[in-house]
């Protein structure tokens, strides 16, 4: 390699520094936001445990979508009646903003009113734990069926990106202070 070729490579590297810096910043934000979802999940487990739900197997019943830490974090808990609650904590584009989706798969809660009351009790308990809602609680008549099929959730290939733009919100967005 000639000196001139080395100098050209050096110039190219200098031009790429801002891009590399931006990539590193995005990676750092993704790691911190991922940790934030884990901390919210820890509070969800404590809250649902107090309401009679159990995380049966932490290895098998908690995962990132597609096993990718940039994606939503989901966990599944059950109560003695066999009701399942799948909580999905998903990044909402803007750093530090996540949505929390409660999906109840139950033979006990058969009507929308009971499902809404259960969701409200969970969100009230989460707020008491310090998880703040950035918007109103929205309750849909049906849980998202894709969350009942756990293996599909683990293999989901989608990737989330952290941006500075606000994303549309479908569920109850949560903002965690201090991180």
Work out the count of structural domains. Answer: 1
Class inferred from helices and paired strands? alpha+beta
Task: Report, as a whole number of angstroms, the end-to-end distance.
Answer: 48 Å
Let me know the number of strands: 6
The helix-strand sequence is: HEEEEHEHE
* Mean pLDDT, all residues: 77
Total number of helices: 3
Radius of gyration: 20 Å
State the shape: elongated
Description:
By secondary structure, the protein is of the alpha+beta class. It has one domain (3-175). Helices cover 40% and strands 18% of the residues. It has three helices and six strands; from the N terminus they run αββββαβαβ. The protein has helices at 3-50, 112-128, 150-155, and strands at 62-64, 73-78, 84-91, 97-105, 132-133, 172-175. A six-stranded antiparallel beta sheet has the order 1-2-3-4-6-5, covered by helices on one side.
Q: What structural keywords apply?
A:
alpha+beta; single chain; disordered C terminus; 6-stranded antiparallel sheet; 3 helices
Q: Brief description of this entry?
A:
The chain has 179 residues and is an alpha+beta fold. It has helices at 3-50, 112-128, 150-155, and strands at 62-64, 73-78, 84-91, 97-105, 132-133, 172-175.
Q: Which helices and strands appear, and what pairs or packs with what?
A:
Layout: H1 3-50, E1 62-64, E2 73-78, E3 84-91, E4 97-105, H2 112-128, E5 132-133, H3 150-155, E6 172-175
Antiparallel strand pairs: 1-2, 2-3, 3-4, 4-6, 5-6
